[in-house]
Amino acid sequence: MKAIGFNTPLPINNVNSLLEIELPIPEIGEYDILVKIQAVSVNPADVKIRASHQPQAGNYRVLGYDAAGIVTQLGSKVSQFAIGDKVYYAGAINRMGSNAEYQAVDSRIAAKMPSNLSFAEAAALPLTMLTAWETLFDRLNINKDTAQTLLLIGGAGGVGSATIQLAKALTDLTIIATASRPESVDWCRKLGADYVINHHQLTQQFAEYKLPAPEFVFSTNHTDSYLPQIANLIAPQGKLALIDDPTVFDINPLKGKSVSVHWEFMFTRSLYSTTDMQKQGEILTNVSKLIEQKRLVTTLTHTLYGLNADNLKQAHTLVEQGNMVGKVVLAL
């Protein structure tokens, strides 16, 4: 089968940064499904790994952590899917990715895609929806009766876009999202943010708009640079969640308010085969229902047609720039 991989970390503008290669169709395990890929999305995780990971000599790493496609083969212990089902999922970081014609994925972390979405629209969702859902409901432990305030740093990106929607659909939170450009401000408001403020002026704008101290803060990027303002703004006994990778992260300023810190890594369940691994499939099933009820929408904003090296390089470039609104997808 055709696939796109890399064998050495290179800048994305290097002709060899991503290469079209031939690989055997993956063999499946007892819990796996084999999926014929129809669309994939590119996330910051793809960019980070491509730029820093060195595959073993002579081997290629195939990336891709979002996909939508058609089930073509079932493992012996798979009962929730049938051949021909349309599915979507975020995959696992320790297995071959979705930038290929076929992918083997554990059925417990996949779900039937929303019936009212195209493959491209569905492929934009899994990783970011899982990250947002796990952050809100597993890490921060927010529930429907929580009539409090969430400060979301980075509201217009993929995870931010999913977080605004889930918080609006499933909680009574007041959502304060951050964005700095007119198009990203409009995007956050369109998705349901109650307030949109500039992340370069957090403290000033909280005072200007007389916003309440947030009980919950979710930082999606540059958390180390925002930490002094977060420590100043967050409510006593508040909760901070983050998903990025600060080089240095000194949480001592949070001690005086007894703030708890929660790190979210969407791949933890699949990486360690946790006993609740199937919860990711359940989350995506719930997301499908919410989309079919038109309570959530896809965050797809850029579509490139053709799963090839040139298009994948273009998608990586868009993500690397760090100012994209929504998600970019490659579709057949």
TrEMBL record:
Transmembrane segments: none annotated. Pfam families: ADH_N (PF08240), ADH_zinc_N_2 (PF13602). GO terms for molecular function: oxidoreductase activity; zinc ion binding. Keywords: Metal-binding, Oxidoreductase, Zinc. Residues 13-330 form the Enoyl reductase (ER) domain. The keyword Nucleotide-binding does not apply. It comes from the Bacteria. InterPro entries: ADH-like_N, ADH_Zn_typ-1, ER, GroES-like_sf, Lipid_raft_assoc_Zn_ADH, NAD(P)-bd_dom_sf. Belongs to the zinc-containing alcohol dehydrogenase family. Quinone oxidoreductase subfamily. This is Zinc-type alcohol dehydrogenase-like protein.
